[in-house]
Amino acid sequence: MPPAPGDREARREDVSEAVWQVLAGKGFGGLTLRAVATAMGVSTGMLMHYFPTKRALIAHALGLLEKRTAERPRRERPAEGLAALRAVLLDILPLTPDDTARNRIWVSSWDLALADDALGTDQADRYARMRSAIRPHLEAARHLGELPASADPEQLAAASVAFAHGLVVQALFDPARFPEDVQTAMVDDFLASMARVPPSGPEPGTG
């Protein structure tokens, strides 16, 4: 007899907790139906009532990871401009043990996304949402005069995401070289460089 809807939803929550436990300990490389079943103390057959394939389990895990990332505690956001963007970038970086664990899981998921068109599309959509969330801070910074009038918020949003995730990868692989104070200083240097963005047109007298 299939479980009642309420029981099924509660069981899926149990599965989600087990998935998170496996991801935190082994990353996506260690995420298997058997590993999740073992973490739950159930049989693989029982687990397959909820996730009949590993791909279904992975899709669920990525959705769970995005949900937990969105719900994590965040720094207080200054009202607008580059100060608000600074808080956003610091929240992305592996500056605490929880942030480090979460970033390790995200980075380990990229290999799967590159090998699967649907998962790759989902990841591209996540990046698009990140850029869209960052762009208003850059528009505000330009309005406040913190950025040159010629600055392109769309391009700078893409640069901000690229910078943050590039630093994430370096900090994960070489944490001794990139402790919290170094990462924070690099964010401040990156934001300062934005304020020096040159005009997009030709220099005076050259056109």
Query: What spatial form do the alpha-carbon principal axes imply?
Result: elongated
- Average of per-residue pLDDT values: 85
Largest sheet, strands/sense/barrel: none
Distinct helical segment count: 9
Q: What is the alpha-carbon Rg in Å?
A: 21 Å
Order of helices and strands: HHHHHHHHH
Q: Characterize the quaternary organization of these chains.
A: single chain
Total E-strand runs: 0
- Overall helicity: over 70%
Percent in strands:
under 5%
**Unreliable runs, pLDDT <50, ≥5 residues?**
201-207
N-end to C-end Cα span: 78 Å
Q: Indicate the structural class.
A: mainly alpha
Can you tag this structure with a few keywords?
9 helices, mainly alpha, 207 residues
Secondary structure elements and their pairing?
Layout: H1 5-26, H2 33-40, H3 44-47, H4 54-71, H5 82-92, H6 97-115, H7 117-144, H8 153-173, H9 180-194
Fold and architecture overview:
This protein is mainly alpha-helical. The chain is built from 9 helices and no strands. Residues 201-207 have low confidence and may be disordered.
